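Section 3.1: Structural characterization of target chains.
Under the original work plan, the team committed to producing a structural model for every single-chain target entering the pipeline before any wet-lab resources were allocated. The record below documents one such target. The sequence was received from the expression subgroup and is listed exactly as submitted; it comprises 83 residues.
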Amino acid sequence: MLTIILEAVAGAALAKLGATIGAGIAVIGAGIGIGKIGGSAMEAMGRQPEAAGDLRNNMIVAAALVEGVALLAIVVCILALFI
């Protein structure tokens, strides 16, 4: 009986550890993705300044999509942490 309880406690701790690592990876991935989007947009604006308005709008949309996916990943990790 004690071994079953210990396995359950260790499994819960391992699930919490996995959820926190998953949330961290999601945040790091989103940061890298938004950084690449911003860097590429700035480079493109430097090459073609007349297209800056279109590039800015597209950059904001792409960054919002990346951030949305990261938020979804964090929510899934938090649900895994508490459920």
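The mean pLDDT is 85.
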